[in-house]
Structure formats: C-alpha cells, structure tokens
Amino acid sequence: MTKVKIELLQDELAGLQLAAGHLQYSTERCRDLIGQEGLPPEQLERLESLTSRFARLADLLIQRVFRLVDEVELTGGGSLLDRIYRAEKRGWANAAELITIRELRNLIAHEYAAEKMIEIYTAVAALSPVLLATVPRVIAYANITLRKYAR
Hints:
Blueprint: H1 3-30, H2 41-72, H3 80-89, H4 95-110, H5 117-149
Helix pairs in contact: 1-2, 1-5, 2-3, 2-4, 2-5, 4-5
Protein name: DUF86 domain-containing protein
Organism: Candidatus Accumulibacter aalborgensis
C-alpha cells in the first residue's frame, strides 16, 4: 500500500470520528422532537441538521471509508452492495441495516415533500444508533489494517 493511501485513510478516519460526534450531538438535541408536527422553525432547523449529519456520516462511511479499506486490502472493486457485504463479513454491521441506511440517505437527498419529513426524521432517529455503533468498529479495524501495512 502506498503512503498516500495510508495518509488518506488516516484523514478519512479522523473525519469519520468528527462526523459521528456531530451526529451524536444532533441525535441528543432532537430526541424530544421526533414524531411531532407543527414545530417552530428553530426546532425544524435542528431536525434538518440531524438528517444532514446522518446523510453525511452514511456517505463518509459507506462511500469513502469502506471503499478505502477495500483498496488498502486489495479487495476493491464491485458495487456498493459488494462493499456493504464485505463490511458485514468484517463484523462492522448487518448488511440489511447498512442497505436501509443507504436507502434512507438517498431519500434524504431527494425528498422534498414536507408531509414525508416526519417519517424521515423518525427513521433517522431509529437508525442513527446503528450508524453510530458501526463507526468505532470500522475505526478499530482500519487502525489494525494501517498498522499492518504501515511498516
């Protein structure tokens, strides 16, 4: 593995940890808002921040870090589903949950109907713990991988 890939993975892991901290913060701030209708703009803004941070963490994890670990281990290539199934084999998370997280991320990015937002906020609140629990597993695995290849 090249030094460039090692540095890139280290940078992505730092960003992953930071993004997870932001999502955790938003999750705690929005806990009492989930499922409510007719919220004032300040509270809607908190929920929008929550969904944005959820989508950002999901992208960073699945699109960037999963791919980078695959490249470092020379198992790259294949589809998004291939990356997700390799993540499950590595013990990071359940593939079905990761697929649901990815689908929710896509819905967040493309949903403009206000009447669906309560469902989206509820789904984000339900899946955020799964997403957040995946992060330390990925970081631990990636750090072991980095130590192995950094010699």
